[in-house]
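Could you help me review a protein record that somebody else here produced? This is what I was given.
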Amino acid sequence: MSKVCQITGKKAQVGNNVSHSKRRTKRKFEVNLHTKKFYWVEEDMWIELRVSARALRTINKIGLNAAIKKAEADGNLDIRDIRILSL
């Protein structure tokens, strides 16, 4: 499974390590991902999402249902990719 946030679509970026002598070598900036359980009230079920720290703030601000709908509209999430824990 790739390291991509299911809500925001954030993924790893590529950059350089720069030494004291200014030599540059490639490196990756990974995303701060967490596997988190949420209770989806509108569907009356527990789900599990891989979300970034920024996505957690987004969910707290606009709500889980609105965040899922926005992620679907942006093309970051497909409903079939949501892991359902219990009904």
User: Anything to note?
Assistant: The longest strand covers residues 33-40. The mean pLDDT is 94.
